[in-house]
What does this fold into?
Amino acid sequence: MVARPGLRAESRLFTALLLWLIAASCLAASAASEQIERGRYLVHAGGCISCHTADRPDAIPLAGGRRLETPFGIFYAPNLRPDRKTGTGGWTDRDFDAALRQGRAPDGSLYYPVFPYPAYAGMSDRDVSAIAAYLRSLTPVHNPVPPHELPWYLRWRQVMLGWNLLWFDPQPFQADQRRDAEWNRGAYLVRHLGHCGECHTPRNVLGARDHSRELAGNPDGPDNENIPGIRQDREGGIGQWTIDDILLFLEVGMLPDGDFAGSSMSEVIDDNTSQLTAADRRAIAVYLQSLAPLHSP
It folds into this structure.
């Protein structure tokens, strides 16, 4: 029996449509996989693991519970895994954007700036979306964290309205057209995604960063650490470091004198800077070497 021409044409059309749907599905799956992998990289680059993982050997990464001591009380980092009751399960893209770039939780309450949303505010749309995709891909973990231990006057989150009005100006990162792509990438990583200034910049009595002394060091850092400066000051900074010194430090934590980073910086090396590409570490080094010293030699 010979098939009619109309049936053969319909069969070819159906086959072509099926192949197109399969190809489109594969491309979508590939794009989703690439976005998740990019988000994984950005979570490391953003320092999320160090803060959102409890400080104990059996802690599950990003499940929250890390105890953070500050001059304003003790904070406990929340669970970032997609558990619906104790984590980010059910968060929309808009929720992730509001949290990262506006310091606002899905229920509308305000975060405290121990969460570095003032730095993350400069992140790109693409990076925020990729981080959200990666966090959604994780296995949910039910892990309620303790409430913050704060003085009475900070327990009402609405006090952050005044703080934000005074010191929070969310602006997207603007590339400096006078600089090359490498310098601008370093600036983006240091100022925003890597939020180096959150630890390495001194703060005023109300906890706002002193931008006139950006990256000049902070004697009252997290967990009561004395955080050194990372500008080009020869004393109290990295003015005597070469590019290679900075690269080696970011990769393995070794100082120019042969000693190694300790305290919280060792975690930053392990979970953040050592996980970056060589190109991103070099961009950071190039940017840091461009920062003029604040003190005369």
Remarks:
- Strands lie at 67-70, 73-76.
- Residues 34-172 form one domain.
